[in-house]
Structure formats: C-alpha cells, structure tokens
Amino acid sequence: MKAFTVSKAVTALMLAGLVLLPLYSHLSGNIFILTLFTRIIILALAAASLNLIMGFAGLMSFGHAAYLGIGGYAVGMLAQEGVGSGFIQFPVALAASAIFALVIGALSLRTRGVYFIMITLAFAQMAYYVASGLARYGGDDGLTIYKRSDFSGLIDLGNRTQFYYLCLACLFGVIFLIWRIVNSRFGLVVQGLRSNEQRMQAIGFPAKRYQLVCFVISGTMCGLAGALLANNTDFVSPAVMYWTRSGDLMVMVILGGMGTLFGPVMGAVVFLLLEELLSQITEYWALILGPLLLLIVLFGRGGIMGALGRANRG
Amino acid sequence: MAEPLLRVEKLVRRFGGIIATDNISLDVASGELHAIIGPNGAGKTTLISQLTGHLAPHSGSVSLAGRDITFLPAYRRCALGLARSFQITSLLLDFTAADNVALAAQAHAGTSFRFFANARKEKGLRDAAHAALDRVGLLHRADVVVSRLSHGERRELELAVALASKPKLLLLDEPMAGLGVTESQRMVKLLQELRKEVSIVLVEHDMPAVFALADRITVLVYGRVIASDDPAAIRQNEDVKRAYLGDQHVVTHHG
Asked: Is A203's CB within 8 Å of B83's CB?
C-alpha cells in the first residue's frame, strides 16, 4: 500500500461519514439531515460526472445541468404517461442523456476553449427553453411525480434510508468506473489530449473521437444523477437545467479539486453544506459564499484536495 | 529504380502573396538520411508542416511508400509509418517520460477504446516504452515527469516517442535546436545509430552535423529547391555558396 496522506485520511473519513449517516439520522431522529445528504450525494454524482470531462479530459462543459433535466424529465414524463417501472425509466433516462450528449458533443467539439464553453452553455439553455415549452408536462411550472420509480419490490425508493443507500451506491459505482476509466488506455489518451493535443495527433490519435466518447460517458453518468434527483424531489422543472445550476456543478468540481477522484464529492459536500448553513443565518448568504469560494479557488490551488495534498507535504 | 519512400511532387503553398513553397519536388529513398537546409525564411517549416499534415498544400502531392497522403490528417500519416519530432519540444508535460513513449506505442498496438484494464500495467506497452527510452539513453529517467526533465533530455525523449511508433520515416525538425555542444554531439551520435534502422528527413541549422550525417542534402532558398545532391557536391555547388552561405554571411554582418 502507498503511504498515509492527509487527503486520503480526510477522504476516508468523509466516505465513512456518508455511509454511517442514516444511522445517525435514526438515532437522533433528525430526518432532515438524511434528506439534505441524499440531495448532496446526487449532486456529488453529477459533479463527479462533470469532473470526468472537465478535470480529466480538460473540456469545460458549461451545460452539464442539461443532463440533470433530461434524466429527470425522462422519469417524470414516463411516470405521467403511466410507465412507473424504474427498469424502464432509468435506462430511458440514461439513453436520452447519452443521445443528447452525442449530438451536442459532436457539434461542440468542433470548437475549443471559450467557444466550447459558450456552445455547451447554449445547448443547455436550449434544453431549458424546450422544457419550459412542454405544456403537457407542466411547462414553466414543472412536473410533479406522484409515484417514485418502481423497482418491483427490489428496492423501495419511497423509503428514505433505502433511497439514500441507492444514491450512495450509484455514487460509489460511478466513482469506481471513473477510476477504472482514467487509468485505462482510453483514459490515458483523453488525459494526453488535455495535456497536448498536437502531440497526441502526431503520435496517431484522432482527438475528437476520444473526446466525444468521453463527453457521452460523462453526460450519461449525469443523466443518472438527474433520474435520482427527480425521484428525490418528486418533481422536475426546467429550473434544474438553468445555467446557474451548471455553474454550481462547476464550482463544486473546482472547489473540491479538478481531476481528482474524490474532489467533486468533497466539493459538493462543502458547497451544499455551506449553502445550507449560511442560508439559515442570512438571506444574503450568497454574499458570503461567493467571496469564500473566491478565496478557496485563489489560495487553495487544486481545490480542497490540492490544499490537503500540500498539508501533507508541508 | 525502386520506389522512393517519400516523394514530394510540385508542392505549392502560398500565404497571401508570398509563395512559401514554390513547386518543390524531392525524393527520399528508403534507408537514406536526407537533410533539408536553407536560410531562415526559406520555407523549411512550411514544407515540414505539409509533410506532417498540419498544413494543406495548394497544389502538388506527397506520397509515402507509393501511397498518396497529401490530404491525410496527421494521425493517419502516423499510422502509415511517418513519425515526427517537433522543432519546439512538444510533449505531455504532466506525464512521465515512460508514459509519453508508452502512449506512442499504444497508438500502434490495437484499439485504445479500452475502458477498464489499467494501461500502465500492460507489459507490452511498458516494454516498448522502456526499449525506446533505452535506445536514446533515457531509461534511468523513465519515471520522471517531463516537466522536470532538462531541455536536452526532452529532445531525446522526442526521439524516443517518435521511435516508439516504429516508423518507416522519421521527420526530425531541428533536433539540435537549443542544445549545448556536448548534447549536440550526443545527438549526432544517436542519429548515426538510428539511421541504420530508419529513413530520416532531417531539417537542421547545425551545418557540421548536417554534413556529418546526410546522404543527400536538399537546399531551399525562397521556397525553391536550388540544389539536391550528396554533401560533397553541395559543398562545391556555386549556387548554394552564393545563395545560402553567402546570404547567411550578409545577414550576420548587416543584421
């Protein structure tokens, strides 16, 4: 095994905390904390998926919230039409996200840098306005989901604890997949392209193909988060796709540490807890959170994970 | 006569009103070390860019082993056996030396759409990387991150990366650029070894190195080939003396 490090210890502590949280919730009778952390875990999953394309592949997708909406609407619309089975809803949510990612990825990857950021943002906003126009499915007001995805007795999404562990299992599963991917042949190519695209082309790798596949994997993972999120809130609305939500996901990734395995989880936990705590203190919580994030990004290069890495060395 | 490994025919590339590549034709035979020289602005880099696929010519053609590659993208040319080094070192700075070379080997060892197995534990790729690093004398630096390598080491690593793709033809764009005297001598020795295994096109400013290494030398001036011959003949060629060495002389004294 590799040596003990501060960042590993903190990560392990955080993961243990997430696993044991329902126990605490039961003992203390604090149900709210379980609901809050279910949401945190789902958004951590979304942030982890964004990190794959942003941190490892180096492509700043500013439209990742679109997949939260697509995954969510897949569940909501099917439920509305009387298809309540999770075995149908979830695969459809993933497939729809994958197809959306394939189409916008194929178009967006013709551009680089700022243009890539802007075009992914534009596509996400397009999805937002399309959802707002879906009169049959609530339009602007959103769509209430009266019954959570039904996994025919296998797992009950209506049960808070079961649902929490389902979300946690999905998060761990996705992080495991990302871990395998970034160390695989494919992962090395994608990271090589982040590092030096010209060099990778010269040694024989067509950049776009690899980046597109990575974009689709990332979008599909985020679609899963969307399907879970809709179940969590029993509701889906265009607001989940709004560009500020995409921005939140980016902040979580940068805050936790881009291109690290557990950074996005750390970032999601810290960001959403701060948001929760500060909003209890003052209505103007964003006024405090904003500068705080600025400081962390300015002085903790590499986010929380980067800071912890330095703590170990220093 | 046997088919040349690389054939460039009537290549033309303009930038606005300037003709950077003016009807260039040249052949590189298999096993040859072919040097391309010329004063600054002669169009060497423009020519190289068209050989590697970074720039498309306006007319003319480039073929490799009888196959027309004029409009193939860079990554396809590489698959056909054309490897290059960059004039300004271009490597994956945040990867180790071994990773840089292993990726080049990976590009030529089956599909890279493998998502699960750890690529750094693939013995074939690691062995190929270590062999190429050994070839250029960098094996002891295999696990060092490139950003921590010296300039000279990076130039050698460029070569190792190019070699790892098992090329038929190596395009070296000023491999001695920025090297000190001893480093240059090591590079010349290394190229003398490599030329036994692979055909090389060498673009270089270091004249002693060029004359020591080349089988043939092509001289470019203002985008045109003014001579293409063996080193002894080039040394005697009046046009070359006047246009190239003479110009250089004028430039150094008045510039």
From this structure: yes
